[in-house]
């Protein structure tokens, strides 16, 4: 980072940075590091050039984090800094690692934090947050777009046979997911930290929306499937989903499957080489899950 930006961070922290440890995960080109200070403190810092396309999401994350109450399992924002063409966010440092969903005790901790979020963020404590439909409506309309343009020759045979049915089912997700809860909408293992006491903290609140309290768990489910965890028993028993109309959940799963399928066919992103692999794997997992739910030939 530029010397002037590093100096600005140290000035706000009131101490020199002794070392910086880059943290894994995520798909943006921004800096994400745990900073060890000369006075013994540690903080977590994110930074991105303001000219970068994704910088506006850092602003949203900062605004969201600043409004979350201490009861929300999320790191506290200490300050933001904009200087010399860089935007910097500094959070309290959370000791921990990303949970592994295929480990039962860690999966339980993840599911517990989903229940906690649904409880503490209903109704949404944040004003002027977009609805799930407003934020994701254009993104979660892929089957309808593909049906209008005609199925591509390289699409899976099951998809080609059922494209009209997929488009019709997808069209039902928006009314199904209406609600008054604040949602994270981007939950993955690398957006969670498992602390030494066994509890989970949720980080990176860059995509907040208002919608049905159960939507975050359904959005997370493809990531569970990628680690070999069957989402169905979880949805059937978890407090936020067990009483939800199964057709509503299926409509959202259908929309997610379409999104990942279309995203996986996009050209690779040189800014984040891991992103294309994530899209392809998520698409396969979500399609397989959807096929089990609808039982179409």
Protein model, in words:
The structure is a single chain. The longest helix has 22 residues, at 273-294. The protein has a five-stranded antiparallel β-sheet, with helices on both faces. It has a two-stranded antiparallel sheet with strand order 6-9. The protein is 44% helix and 16% strand. It is globular. Helix 5 (142-149) packs across helix 6 (157-170) and helix 10 (246-264) packs antiparallel against helix 11. A hairpin with a 2-residue loop joins strand 4 (77-83) and strand 5. The chain is built from eleven helices and nine strands. With 297 residues, the protein is an alpha+beta fold. The model has no long low-confidence stretch (mean pLDDT 93).
Mean pLDDT: 93
Largest sheet properties: 5 strands, antiparallel
Give the CA-based shape: globular
What percent of residues adopt helix (DSSP H or I)?
Answer: 40-55%
Strand percentage lies at: 15-25%
Q: Care to count the β-strands?
A: 9
| Biggest sheet: strand arrangement | 1-2-3-5-4
* C-alpha end-to-end distance: 54 Å
Structural class comes to alpha+beta
